[in-house]
């Protein structure tokens, strides 16, 4: 029996309003790609549910017609996660964008999956609270949970997985479950929170999230420290961590990327390898920490350190960092972004970054190096001409060199962007026989293989 | 075909030395119970592997003869986790007690599962490092990972799940996998670390762990603060947390438990509701935090606050806290320990503790209340006469009242002790349809249902 899209649209039309189901070409195209170099592919149908119940019904219909399902937030993924290569139904969560409850006293907030991090922080500010995870993009909370996103503050506050207390999830048969509870810790049953966070839409659709939030710190100090070399900057970070200084943010931006920052953000920062730093705490404690930090960076050839004393300058600093990928994209019209994303034990970081720079030179590839260096995570940003087969090949080779270097040192091929399709070829090398365990879990929870098929894991039907 | 234990012993004898396999009655009895009130049950055979390869071979033999497998550390579980109610082979990990590698610069340590927390901390002290998770018992790291243990420091450093970077696991078919890597964060594949931590031996046997460790803080301040009422003490903690004071430890010990502490630990602390507090950081920061904390507790009728200025007094304070369960046990010879273990959102904690005290009075049960109150986790310690059916019934009723109160407020039935058999009856109420997801995972990874059968989840064969 051949199923036509018309039949599926008609079944979806019976449970949704007219404006919630579309096969409009422009809308399909808007859901055919992400922010990466991965090639586009159209969904057959895009739906815009407004409630968990509607998501459950959509999933049941998808099941009935054996249509793949791809959950979609803002399309800011970097490894092709949301691209529907198997077509089917894309579920766009933009109508599910309510902040359901701020539990101020519990430092918890319940949100729908379409809420973005900037939207959430705007609301939380009223309560003196903030949400810590800050990828470059203004992604949705649902999308950030799907990839276990992180950002500049993970060195202190952790990744998305560390924030999620509970997920409401629609499973492959339409059942709705909760993966956790609102307690700070639990030893009850298997840890489904941890399993579903980072599952990239392959095990279920998130329809509500409860996440941890934090009090805005009493006192914040931010600084830019410029170094002679990237290696000096990285060694300084390793020394700061080893000294036990509780740092809230520490970002490496190399000299090439500092140029992009200045061009895009109209700043006039030194165009040298730089650390963007931030400390959170009480005034007396921070002053002591910062004095200690200054001694340490001086011992690593720090050439200048400038403190951002007012709020505006501090916000500008972090906005410039967040917009760095966009700075590269806007600075290279017509080209596509490829970003490496390895993470290594901190003792291996300086070597890995030096290796990346050598490999760039060897392959004559232009690229900037930035990183959440406090976590051992760094990115090389490459702008690729997708019409130049040789450049694509070299960029792929480069990515592979970087990944292999990390895996040989017990690191990971992706620190925060996720697997999607871009890191799939490294899964067996990284996980070995554990990949079979992941396959068993996928098959047990999504036997029809309809949830974001062939992402993370490729299972032969 | 009926399989005799002799056949299995003989098969095990072919891969292990004589002293590594036993059916000696005394040894079987040593592996028949834990530290709780749950009734004992003998294993058929106890084995003492020395390597991962031996564990893998034991699991394959168990498979061949359809013998249940129970991993065993120090037998300090509190919900019957290690009691082999289905008999079979108990794997005692006491020979696998090596600290394999201290990666000082990475703040990581690789250990075998039989290493205990005190053994690890003794070694780490040489490097200026410590391992943070500290349940009352001197449990093994393998056992602590199996139950997602926590303790007095979780409010700052997190639970066992937060420390585990990688587990080497022997699966039900004898395959050996690694669940993670040594990077600080990863978005690669499903999060198997999180799934296996807390799986209580039902999904595999841990044969090696890599866990995070921390630098011993530059400056530590500990204190005892006495209050008029338990409610005052709890409200003070909630205020301290809401003020954003970064506390490293905050333990509630009620007046009854303070008496047990003094009796057992030969201390002369005030026998009033008390908070044991500790702060970690730099000197200037801590002094400011402590001044703020003193203001807050004064606002909650704190009657006295005493700082432990020297190391010895500070160690004595925490040793007294760690030995509290043993203090109760030794103070009530012939009786057995039942400990409740709920955890709730912090805004619900004061109400929950008041409810527990009322329920104790209503049922005329003697019991002390202690808790890791910074996490919203508290324990009621009951000493039960196991020959008094009425007392057992009342204690069970009490436990159920406490659990239901927590579940109705989106808490959990077990904050840190785990499910074992004691919390099994609450799993459906707590997890709803998510329990079916857990069952599917169990069946996918242990189709023969041999790994610690009927713990956490009961699946009909």
From TrEMBL, chains A, B:
SUPFAM superfamilies: FAD-binding/transporter-associated domain-like (SSF56176), FAD-linked oxidases, C-terminal domain (SSF55103). InterPro entries: FAD-bd_oxidored_4_C, FAD-bd_PCMH, FAD-bd_PCMH-like_sf, FAD-bd_PCMH_sub2, FAD-linked_Oxase-like_C, Oxid_FAD_bind_N, Vanillyl_alc_oxidase_C-sub2. This is D-lactate dehydrogenase (cytochrome). One of its GO terms (biological process) is lactate catabolic process. Residues 39-216 form the FAD-binding PCMH-type domain. Pfam families: FAD-oxidase_C (PF02913), FAD_binding_4 (PF01565). It comes from Lysinibacillus odysseyi 34hs-1 = NBRC 100172. Its cofactor is FAD. Belongs to the FAD-binding oxidoreductase/transferase type 4 family.
